[in-house]
Amino acid sequence: MDRKRRRLCLLASLLVVLLIIILGVVLGLTLNRDRDPLKRTFLDRCGKFKEYDCQNVWSIFEQAYVNKDPCNVPPEAYHPLIAAAPIIPACNRMMFWSKTKDVVHDFTNKRDCFITMEDTLLGSVLDGLRWCGEEGSTETFTTDCPGWSDCVNNPVRSFWNSVSAAFAKAACGQVTTMLNGSIDTPYSPSSVFASIEVKNLNSTTVQKLNVVLVIQKNAVTNCTNASLENLKKDLGEIQYDCKEVPESQIQECASDPEKPCGSCW
Ligand code: N1C
Fold first, then answer.
1. Which homologous superfamily is 37-263 in?
2. C-alpha distances in Å from residue 216, one per residue of 109, 151, 221
3. Fewer Cβ atoms within 10 A, N terminus or C terminus of the chain?
4. Which of 102, 121, 160 to mutate to test the pocket of ligand 1 (most atoms within 8 A of CB)?
């Protein structure tokens, strides 16, 4: 009788241990699944770039902002990342933009005419994402991070400033930019394009900047816009050209693979 009870007791404790293990595994899996959504997206998108060790690129990226005050991450923090995944120049094919993201990417996704920042490894893995760290923590956060203008040296703003400067420095030959003809100031001094990219174009390698001013039905401006005069000045030795191009013409060219890139506008 006593032995039977002991055996039952043993069985019961075994069952309890088993239950605890199962519960632990299930809980661990569910809690872990979305612990690091940024890392998952980063590695997922990075997979397309076969020549890189994505885990290594991720760990170099993390070091720029993890365990740091999210208002104290300067653009230089991303220099090791840019060194690990450098921007390869594509002369005459580099495309910049400001306030025209959708038109530009609709075009570049359909036609192999231009390379934007988002076609490079660094531009593509972090496009549209938010991230930050916290002093005293090894975690990456994707919510409650400082916004673009909350503080200047925030991880996202510093990232785009840093990689956009590298993208512009790599430019050569004729470069193109799509600007928005439906706003009063298509060349805005506070934009990344004006404040970082134009300043980093090298006049010994870049010969000319071609502005494509995207015109919609509600266009408010044209190539005589005052802000474009500032752009011309900021270019110094680099030549300048501006064309007003209807958005519909860009879309038609995007959908017509027969049309040579050079005759889209
Ligand atoms: O401030 P912007 O435009 O002038 O920046 C665009 C300019 C492009 O030429 C790109 O090469 O700077 C580069 N760039 C990006 O590639 C990029 N991808 C996503 C700058 N910013 C980028 N983002 C996000 O868009 C970023 O978070 C920032 O807030 C916006 C800037 O867009 P904008 O004002 O239209």
1. ADP Ribosyl Cyclase; Chain A, domain 1 (1.20.82.10)
2. 20, 34, 10
3. N
4. 160
Indicate which residues carry an active-site annotation: 91, 172
Ligand 1 pocket check for 99: Cβ under 6 Å: yes
Q: Looking at residue 12, what is its pLDDT?
A: 79
Q: Is 7 exposed, middle or buried (0-12, 13-18, 19+ CB in 10 A)?
A: exposed
User: How much is the pTM?
Assistant: 0.88
- Helix-strand-coil percent breakdown of the chain, rounded to 5? 45, 15, 40
- Looking at the chain, which runs of residues are DSSP E strands? 95-98, 173-180, 206-215, 239-246
Determine whether the shortest distance from the Cβ of 167 to ligand 1 is under 6 A.
yes
Distance CA 200, CA 261 (A): 26
Nearest to 98 by CA among 20, 221, 196, 194: 194
The ranges of the chain with pLDDT < 70 are 1-3, 9, 24-34
Over its C-alpha atoms, the chain yields an Rg (Å, rounded) of: 25
Given the CA of residue 167, which atom of ligand 1 is nearest to it?
11
pLDDT for residue 44: 98
Q: Which pLDDT does position 14 carry in this prediction?
A: 78
> Which atom of ligand 1 is nearest the CA belonging to 95?
9
Helix 37-46 with 54-63: angle, nearest 10 deg: 140
Please give the pLDDT value at position 211. 98
Q: Could you tell me the distance, in angstroms and rounded to a whole number, from the CA of residue 15 to the centre of ligand 1? A: 57
Distance 98 CA to ligand 1 centre (A): 7
